[in-house]
Design goal:
By secondary structure, this protein is mainly beta. The strands form 9 sheets. The chain has a 22-stranded antiparallel β-barrel. A 5-stranded mixed β-sheet has the order 8-13-14-11-12.
């Protein structure tokens, strides 16, 4: 793929700048690597995170060891071992090497007690994007930890993922309007999903502690809002194809939500807030508790939350345009999670993760232009309930770690619509979706042989998975579906450390190569083989150059395959027919396709990652990515009103069909609907329009990601300032079939904008933390009309303050108080043209109607 002039200039100028920063004097490779530290006295956990950033090392520390401890000020040139020794002095803690990670442990205890196998196994998921412990990752990784989320004042995991620039607000998310095309998003059940690059929430694989969860509702997406925010330790996202490692759905990337573990005590929290323009009054209460012992530990969390709806009358830009409409639904939920680990005998341990969630959602919309719900209206409601359990056995051998894991997840969404006309209510439709996921996998990783640059390591595994799906719309409804799909797979990953710093090779500080291969077979669909290659080259200790290439896939959903087919008789004029005899009709097919094959993608990326030792606290990363997505499952005739008049749909049209073809179409359909206003007469049928799902779509996506972080001490005190930037530039195009034109996707209405960014400053003192974040979502063009009017973007500013009382005496000890204002200056979305009174008059996939949201929260450790 060729770079566009803009991307080429931006990429190479930024890359050159990063390389120049990394190559400043003092950044030479040395046999004993020393780094410049200038850390303030601060919480020990913050100091350890800074050391990890400066040294580019993976440091694992259980929160039970760091909570409540202060790290001393650290200034000077030290090795990573010397820096940790000074920070951990007088704490009773020490550092032990586990693979390529440094694990903080109780220094006076022996290794078996201080670092039980469960903590060592946590290194398996410390970095998402590899199955080999401690292996370098050739793809860029985006990470958000618990402290960053708290500092930002975000109230739910859905809010967190929607704030990440690489995640598009379409897919499955609450608040999506009825005018959003089904291909861009839908809200069924009020859940939230991650939608990387806007490729679809079904093209992003979401994991919980490395385990798959069941899908939610009608799409192959995972509801992340089912996870209590207080139980989350961090979120790691690899925005790169990863099917060679994880299988289906990891086309745009993989997101791993990692839970807290090893907590001693109880932490309770409460949050109250609301939108200053009205609506979205939110209450959230939760508790997280845990207990650790020499051979294991357990953590449990519970969360209750509720929020009121945002109605169109609450917003000036919708009050007259869409009266009576719900802009954001009423929500209520209960969620709970359990995470436990226990050493069983010797080097054998068991982990178990459990999750439960139940959520209610409701909204109203008018059925008259005046928006008078007293005359006519409808209320839609849903109840979503899900649970999952995933036990894992782990065996730690001398240089290998083996595992056997199983999982079961179940998700059900009941929905219904009740209409009211002149005070008389009626059921306008109800049903439910259920998804169940069962999986069994075994594997392991360890040293294969040794190279001059270090130990060559391999990971191997195999497994079996079953997905069940039910779509129920009523006892006699022809669209009812109940299907199951199983698959079995095997994978391998190899990491080769070709050159290490100890070899003192000119112009090569470190060089490693990696490769992965996965075979997966779906009976009835077919086999899929996906490879992935990676290279990490560090010409000096301060700069990494990374490259990755791989293929990914997404298996068709059971609804896309087996949704019952229907054939509808319509007048030819309603499908754009011109010049046909009076009374001419068309047979229109729609529904699933059991012959669908997996969607496939080829992705590659190049990343420059600078972390200069001469500028402690600085890290800059820029990545170029490209994905070619083919065989996308589409409904080929997007505009049926011009199906017969627009030549781009010619491949789906059969003109002057034979009587046998007409009879075969009707016989093969699950139901026949006569919408022509006259009796069916085969002689009047002039065309057959085949609009069943097919593998025909193609998408091309490329762009840039920029991640910056800078942390510095302010003066001689404990104050520190952290600056962060996460920005993405995206370009994509789409072709629905060979006969249709290539059209722009990104930068158009109900699709991702070209630019999204989030950046800000955090000032942290001993007890007080202030955070300001600027969010920008670029504008889009409304391509529904010509000329295409531009819809302005939106820039918001968030401000949060946290105050911690510490572990002193009195009732107020161990309190964490927060005051947050999201969208402080109350920016509003630009309006768009609407064609019916139930349309949301703004782009609800990109812009939020919440406005300024002010909240107060309190957390206490007991």
């Amino acid at each position: 793929m060729r770079f566009s002039p803009f991307l080429s200039t931006l990429f190479w100028s930024t890359a050159s700048g990063i390389a120049m920063v990394a190559a400043v004097p003092g950044a030479r490779a040395r046999e004993v690597m020393r780094y410049r530290f200038d850390l303030p006295a601060q919480p020990l956990g913050a100091s350890l995170r800074d050391v990890a950033i400066i040294t580019h090392r993976n440091i694992v520390a259980a929160s039970t060891l760091t909570d409540g401890r202060q790290g001393p000020a650290l200034s000077g040139d030290y090795t990573v071992e010397e820096a940790l020794s000074r920070l951990l002095a007088d704490t009773g803690l020490g550092a032990t090497t586990v693979g390529n990670a440094l694990v903080i442990r109780a220094g006076s205890a022996d290794r078996e007690t201080a670092v039980p196998s469960a903590i060592e196994n946590d290194a398996d998921i410390v970095v998402t994007g590899t199955r080999i412990r401690g292996a370098p990752i050739a793809s860029p990784v985006i990470s958000l930890d618990r402290e960053q989320i708290r500092n930002a004042g975000q109230a739910s995991l859905g809010d967190v993922v929607r704030s990440i620039p690489q995640s598009f607000g379409g897919g499955q998310n609450p608040g999506l309007g009825t005018n959003v095309p089904a291909s861009s998003g839908v809200d069924i059940g009020g859940g939230s999903s991650i939608n990387l690059r806007g490729l679809g929430s079904d093209a992003t694989l979401t994991l919980l502690n490395g385990h798959r969860l069941s899908y939610s509702a009608s799409r192959q997406s995972v509801d992340v809002s089912a996870i209590p925010l207080g139980a989350v330790e961090r979120i790691e996202i690899v925005a790169d194809g990863a099917s060679a490692l994880y299988g289906s759905d990891a086309v745009a990337g993989v997101a791993n939500i990692i839970l807290r573990r090893d907590i001693d005590g109880i932490e309770t929290s409460g949050l109250v807030g609301g939108a200053t323009d009205g609506g979205d009054f939110t209450q959230q209460y939760g508790a997280v508790g845990g207990k650790t012992w020499a051979s294991g530990g357990v953590v449990a969390a519970y969360e209750f939350g509720r929020s009121t709806a945002i109605e169109s009358r609450d917003r000036s830009y919708t009050r007259a345009r869409s009266p009576g409409l719900t802009l954001f639904p009423e929500l209520k939920h209960h969620s709970a999670i359990v995470n436990a680990h226990q050493k069983v005998a010797g080097d054998l341990s068991i982990d178990i993760d459990g999750l439960y969630n139940k959520r209610w959602s409701g909204s109203v919309f008018p059925l008259n232009a005046a928006g008078d719900l007293g005359i006519s209206g409808a209320r839609s409601s849903s109840v979503a309930e899900s649970y999952a359990i995933a036990p894992t056995l782990r065996l730690a051998l001398k240089d290998w770690r083996l595992f056997l894991t199983g999982s079961y997840g179940h998700d059900r969404v009941d929905y219904g619509v009740v209409t009211t006309f002149d005070g008389v209510s009626a059921n306008a439709g109800s049903g439910y979706y259920t998804n169940a996921a069962k999986a069994l996998e075994m594997g392991g990783d360890g040293t294969l042989f040794r190279l001059p640059g270090g130990a060559a390591k391999i990971a191997l595994g195999a497994g079996y998975r079953v997905n069940d799906f039910t779509n129920f719309k009523g006892k006699t409804n022809f669209q009812n579906t109940a299907r199951s799909q199983d698959s079995y797979y095997a994978y391998g990953e190899l990491n080769l450390p070709l050159i290490s710093p100890d070899q003192a090779t000119p112009l090569v500080h470190r060089l490693s190569a990696s490769g992965a291969l996965r075979y997966e077979n779906y009976p009835g669909v077919g086999p899929v083989v996906t490879p992935k290659l990676g290279l990490v080259y560090a010409p000096m200790p301060d700069l990494d150059l990374k490259g990755s290439w791989g293929q990914s896939f997404r298996a068709p959903t059971l609804l896309q395959q087996f949704q019952p087919n229907s054939v509808t008789l319509v007048r030819a004029t309603s499908y754009g027919g011109i010049g046909f005899p009076t009374g001419a009709t068309v047979l229109a097919l729609a529904g699933g396709n059991p012959d669908l094959k997996p969607e496939r993608a080829t992705s590659w990326s190049i990343t420059l990652d600078a972390h200069p030792r001469s500028l402690p606290g600085v890290r800059a990363q820029i990545s170029y990515f490209s994905t070619r997505y083919r065989d996308r499952i589409v409904v080929p005739v997007a505009l049926t009103s011009v199906a017969l008049s627009n030549p781009i749909y010619r491949d789906q049209i059969i003109l002057s069909p034979s009587d046998a073809a007409k009879a075969a179409v009707i016989a093969g359909a699950g139901t026949f609907v006569n919408a022509a206003g006259a009796a069916y007469d085969p002689a009047r049928v002039v065309a057959i329009v085949d609009n069943n799902n097919i593998n025909a779509g193609r998408q091309s996506i490329h762009g840039l990601d920029l991640l910056l972080r800078y942390r510095t001490k302010l003066g001689e005190g404990a104050d520190a300032l952290t600056a962060t930037v996460n920005a993405t530039y995206l370009h994509s195009s789409q072709q629905l079939s060979n006969s249709q034109p290539v059209v722009a996707l990104v930068g158009t209405l109900f699709n991702p904008p070209h630019i999204r960014a989030r950046g800000g400053l955090t000032w942290a003192a001993r007890a007080l933390t202030l955070t300001g974040m600027l969010n920008h979502t670029g504008g889009v063009r409304d391509v529904r009309t010509s000329p295409n009017p531009r819809i302005d973007g939106m820039t918001t500013f968030d401000l949060s303050a946290r105050y911690r009382t510490g572990a002193g005496a009195g009732w107020y000890r161990n309190l964490d108080l927060s005051l947050s204002a999201q969208n402080l200056f109350n920016a509003k979305p630009a309006t768009i043209a609407t064609s019916i009174f139930t349309d949301t008059p703004y782009d609800s996939t990109n812009f939020s109607p919440v406005g300024r949201f002010v909240s107060v929260s309190i957390t206490r450790k007991w």
